[in-house]
Amino acid sequence: MDLLPDPAPLAAGLRSTLLRYHSIADSEWRIARKTKDAVVWRKPSEEFSGYLYKAQGVVEDVTNRIVDHIRPGPYRLDWDSLMTTMDIVETFEENCCVMRYTTSGQLWNIIAPREFVDFSYTTSYEDGLLSCGVSLNYGEVRPNFVRGFNHPCGWFCVPLKDCPSHSLLTGYIQTELRGMLPQSAVDTAMASTLANFYSDLKKALKT
Question: Which residues, if any, are the signal sequence (predicted)?
Fold first, then answer.
């Protein structure tokens, strides 16, 4: 069995990487998609040959409740239309775990179902929270799935200063889907998936 990494240095490095992404100048981003719920930008990733995506939108709820719906736990599987299964493999502390999850096929199954094993870490950030993660090469791949890989990714959620009951949610995602896929299909899927994430999340928070 593969050994799980020491969580403390992994969490510290992950937080540092996400803070660096969060300080990238606006001029480096190119818009990829815009909806009433969110704007999605992209720039070439430093981690692999694809893109680092940035998504941002205002969500009409308090920070803690939003992050509880995003991080690994009972809520996420109920509302995230892309996620089909989720299991917590190991819990290190209340805010730190390893999860295995699967996603449904996309673009009329041009992108087949994927499986990921991610280290997830949630910590404070300014007046809000940061929930971040990175994939691990851990365990056997399930039959009929392609093992994808999430390079450092995460969600910053902070209350709006003039309206603390609403929050600004900013995400950084760079998913390497792997397998034989046309890059244009991946790019289309990523931008629309991130935009849909906001609309699905907003619906879930209203129920």
Answer: none
- Condensed to tens digits (0 to 9), the pLDDT of residues 55-77 reads 999 999 999 999 999 999 879 98
**What is the topology classification, in CATH, of domain 7-21+30-205?**
Alpha-D-Glucose-1,6-Bisphosphate; Chain A, domain 4 (3.30.530)
Question: Which pLDDT tens digit goes with each residue over 12-30?
Answer: 999 999 999 999 999 999 9
Domain-wise residue ranges, the chain: 7-21+30-205
Please give the full DSSP string across the chain, using - where no structure is assigned: -PPPPPHHHHHHHHHHHHHHHHTS-GGG-EEEEE-SS-EEEEEE-SSSSSEEEEEEEEESS-HHHHHHHHSSSTTHHHH-TTEEEEEEEEEEETTEEEEEEEE--BTTTTB--EEEEEEEEEEEETTEEEEEEEE---SPPPTT-EE-EEEEEEEEEEEETTEEEEEEEEEEEEEE--SS--HHHHHHHHHHHHHHHHHHHHHHHH-
pLDDT tens track for 170-202: 999 999 988 777 777 788 888 888 999 999 999
